[in-house]
Every structure is written in C-alpha cells, then in structure tokens.
Amino acid sequence: GHGAFYGLGAYTLAVLMRHWGVSAYAAIPAAALVGLVTGYVFGRVVTRLVGFYLALTTFALALALPQMLKSSYVSPWTGGAQGLYLDRPGAPLRLPLTPDQWWYFVTLGILALLLWMTHNLIAGRIGRAIRAMRDDPIAAQVMGIDVARYTALTFGVGAAYAAIAGALA
Fold first, then answer.
1. SS3 (DSSP) at 79
2. How far is Cα 169 from Cα 147, in angstroms, rounded to an integer?
3. 76-114 core/surface letters (b: 16 or more CB in 10 A; e: else)
4. Which of these, 32, 88, 103, 110, is most buried using a 10 Å CB contact count?
5. Using the 8-state DSSP alphabet, how is residue 73 labeled?
6. How do residues 65-88 score in pLDDT, each as one tens digit?
7. For residue 129, how far is the Cα from the chain centroid?
8. How many other C-beta atoms are found inside a 10 Å radius of the C-beta of residue 74?
9. Mean pLDDT across the stretch 89-118?
10. Each residue of 33-49: pLDDT tens digit?
11. 8 Å CB contact between 77 and 15
C-alpha cells in the first residue's frame, strides 16, 4: 500500500507546482500532510483487519489509486496516463551544483530531519504505546491504550513518509 501513498505524494507535489505555482519546497510539506491525513483515514477504516485481510486491503489500494489517477475526471490535473513532468529546482545563491546535485542535498537534509523525528516519536509516549501494541495488543488495550487510534496514527505516519519519498522522487 505504500506505493499508493508514494504516488499520492508525487502527484500532490506535481499538481501544486504545475497548476498552482507552489514552490517545490512548500509542496513537500503539503504532500506529507496529504499522505498523513489519507493514511490516518485509511488506517481508521481498516483498523479491525489483521494479517491476510489487511494485506489484501492495502494491495487493493495500491492497485486502485493508479487507475483513479488516470481517470478522465482527474486527468486534466494529473496528466492521465502520460503523467506530469517537472524540472528540479536549481541551487540557490549561485552554488556550483547541478539541479540533481542540489536535490540530492535537499533529500539528504529531509532524511536527517525525518530520522530525528522518528527517533523522537519512538522514544516518547507514542513509541511506548506502539511497542506495547506490537508485543501484545490485548494487554495494551487492557492498559488503556486506544489500539485503533494508534494503529491509524502508525498508518498515517508511514503514509506521510511514503508521500514525502514520492514528492522527492
């Protein structure tokens, strides 16, 4: 299912840049927000599924999203089967870097930020709740952890990270 969120992030960035004139640097957080909200809502819907059924549901999402993006309703925005092509932003301050080299450093900086955020998330209260759910969901629920909420939150964070990866691609 992360492939669907990857594509969602890529198309969010492309649509914002192409049709609304938003810069790539401002569109990346917007793609993350779209991924987070979509993943959270999807996680709330499938929160009772486990194992094989959850895998089938996320697989269905991965198969359905590309077809929805190619439909005639959204093809003026998404470019249909051809997609959208965008140029990478150039380096600021006349740095002697090609656009690909500059984008590499932007991606590296975002990676460092995401790793730091992940460390803080895992080290805090949310991380303890997620680890408790991983170890024993029934015991976590008895301890007062809202398993459905934290499962949806985990889906949302994973979807946001996938959307950021799609936006950076």
1. coil
2. 33
3. eebbeeeebeeeeeebeeeeeeeeeebbeebeeebeeee
4. 32
5. T
6. 888 888 888 888 888 878 888 888
7. 22
8. 14
9. 92
10. 999 999 999 999 888 78
11. yes
Q: At what angle do helices 147-168 and 99-123 cross, to 10 degrees?
A: 170
The total of other beta-carbon atoms located within 10 Å of residue 2's CB is 18
Q: How deeply is 47 buried, as exposed, middle or buried, from its count of CB atoms within 10 A (0-12, 13-18, 19+)?
A: middle
Q: Which are the contacts of 148, defined by CB distance < 8 A and separation ≥ 6?
A: 44, 47, 48
In one-letter notation, the amino acid at residue 166 is G
* Contact residues for 13 (Cβ-Cβ < 8 A; gap 6+): 24, 27, 28, 30, 31, 86, 166, 167
How far out from the chain centre does Cα 91 lie? 25
Number of Cβ within a 10 Å radius of residue 156: 21
How confident is residue 133, by pLDDT bands cut at 50, 70 and 90? very high
End-to-end CA distance of the chain: 17
Chain-centroid distance, C-alpha 82? 22
CA atoms of 60 and 54, how far apart (whole Å): 10
**Rg, C-alpha atoms of the chain:** 18
